[in-house]
Amino acid sequence: MYRLTIALLVLCAMSICISAHHGPPPHIKAAVKKCNEEAGGDESTMEKIRNFEEIDDPKFKCFHACIMKAAGSMNEDGTINEEKSIEDIPQDMPDREKMIEAIKACKDEKGADECETAEKIAKCFMGNMPPRKHPE
């Protein structure tokens, strides 16, 4: 579940997918920490998040939606804020154009609720991006 998750951050995940050189913007880092704590995660969970590993735990069902909302990439109605998602990607980020393409390709994914929608978007995004390790 989490390899997708930071698909995050994505959309946030998209915002989350920041290269090791740049690291995530402070508001994304804060969103990940907040949502991890709300879901009952610990340092081992944070390590999985940093490495884009899946978290197979039902407590994390809404993790992607939490991050996307906290970072401003998901609106209250569960739709994606495309402009904010793209804005969060640093201008000098490697693969920035691929990230923008992934955001545009995945923004219309829909699920039964915001949690499922965020999960589908994260999966789509991760499927469109090369794997990378997330910085601490």
Automatic annotation (TrEMBL):
Pfam families: PBP_GOBP (PF01395). Its main location: secreted. GO terms for molecular function: odorant binding. Residues 1-20 form the signal peptide. One of its GO terms (cellular component) is extracellular space. Keywords: Secreted, Signal. InterPro entries: PBP/GOBP, PBP_GOBP_sf. It is found in: Secreted. One of its GO terms (biological process) is sensory perception of smell. It comes from the Eukaryota. Belongs to the PBP/GOBP family. This is Uncharacterized protein. It comes from Microctonus aethiopoides.
